[in-house]
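re the bet — no i am not wrong, look at it urself. input seq straight from the record:
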Amino acid sequence: MALLGAGSLLLLLLLLLFGQSLGAPRSFSVDYKNNCFRKDGKEFRYISGSILYSRIPRVYWKDRLLKMYMAGLNAIQTYVPWNYHEEFPGRYSFSGDRDVEYFLKLAQDIGLLVILRPGPYICAEWDMGGLPAWLLNKKDIVLRSSDPDYIAAVDKWMGKLLPMMKPYLYQNGGPVITVQVENEYGSYFACDYDYMRHLTKLFRSHLGDEVVLFTTDGATLNFLKCGSIQGLYATVDFGPGTNITAAFEAQRHAEPHGPLVNSEFYTGWLDHWGSPHSVVSSAAVAKSLNHILALGANVNLYVFIGGTNFGYWNGANSPYAAQPTSYDYDAPLTEAGDLTEKYFAIREVIKMYHDIPMGPIPPTTPKYAYGAVPMKKLQTVLDALEKLSFSGPVKSMYPQTFIDLNQAFGYVLYRTTLPVNCSSPTPLSSPMNGVHDRAYVLVDGTAVGIFERDEVLTVNVTGKAGSQLDILVENMGRINYGRNINDFKGLVSNLTLGRDILTSWTMYSLSIDEAVSQGLLGENPPTLIDPPRTAAVTAPAFYGGSFIIPDGIPDLPQDTYVKLPNWRKGQIWINGFNLGRYWPTRGPQVTLFVPTSILSTAAPNNVTVLELEGAPCNSQVCTVEFTDTPILNATVLSGYKQYRRLYAKEDLL
């Protein structure tokens, strides 16, 4: 037998010494004895930040994640909104802006671990808390419970999602260190332990026994009573100014041993139409964060970047108050990913406890003011009805809901006729508060008033028997928190004219996004003249314009913001992309973020506006204006309601 050479002997010794550690499997676990997490056997503490990929264009994922990494974070936390990936039963979308796997890979490539929150319910100020609206096809379904129909849908969805996520678990070579089951369940009325036990078994069956599964609840015993359950590690959430010692004592009641974890440390707070933009000082955030880290606790900053509720994805709270398009949240990174004073204040705190990555921080992306774009009236909604209603009319004795009509979002037109002469103003009423959420009332094509859920339940109308009565109903976003998440849209109860119930309805589901993207909304013939604007509101109508971005300037296109001076309320699309809702007369948001990814230098950029209440176009030139400065805290209605005070959860039980 040949003798080993010196080099071979050295190699053998190295293999004997280090082979076991080189081949050791990756692991992430809870160390109950030493009150910490362990990553690959070593004590580990995460400092994380929340980012929701569905609120940020894919082209900007890398920029936002790099900024989070350079702030000193070693992890991110993200939700998976079920309704974003399965808008219709069995039809899944995981491409483009919905490519969650690419997002996870990108986070790992940058050096960030991931805390995954796949629901099935996420809250997140997202439409219906991430639950798909089609669950409401069973009208009496009890969401977030052991209701067999709900469980069957959850099992099918998680049977699709969780096997996709399994390769990304840390022990399988991926970035995901922990996975949340449900979300803030202790704030929900059902308190169904069988439901939580079912989810625990479901997650384990797909993800295995090694992954750390956890729950998150408000930091009081009341929330933890129904939110925590054996087999899931209980964590808490709270914001700046909270009694941190008391908050973690509540967690210790549920978890006597193990790491301290604040899964949602609030860097700002959410907004509602009609309330001032929420602002939380950098000093308050930094002070509480320092206290949390000094205790050796793990923390996730909710949110580190908020992003934008493009399209119709915003949620709402109860009593009904919809959230605006911007989800800026006064976060360390703005809606557009800009660096803020709060970003650097947080970075300085983290620097006291961990090494900060070396190198430059990606700069704030430049913004460009493209200026004013003249707009022309195209067609009213009534004129364009045949182009907008791809599925055609549906007739029934009584009005049907959006779900009955197989429509989740946007707008539905309800049509009937006045059964009697209304020579004097006659109350058209929703006695059971059944207009969800806002409706524009027209008689023979003339706008006569607006219904608003919880606020305006009667509109006076005049007209002859047989006059056409049209009601355009807008879904303003489904309630995302509390017991009222079974939020049906449309005319969800009968309307009365005087004392009589209106019947014989014809309903049109409107496919406005498709009509806009296909360029179906042309101008009216020039012979048609708009009636003078005499009423407080005018008929909902579409307006169009375009602008050219020069292709000879290397840095263009750039991000921008659009504002609509003297416009009132509606929806705006650019190049067929639904930017979201505008409502400057209600506030606080005035500008909408326009990411460069939807702009073009190769062709004119088309702007389409659906103005619901009254455009400034009849008596003057009307424009939309592209600016480089956001306005998120402008005038709000007098007597506004503060629907949800800072960090409060108990008011929505």
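see?? The longest helix spans residues 148-165. told u. also Residues 89 and 134 are 7 Å apart (CA to CA). so pay up
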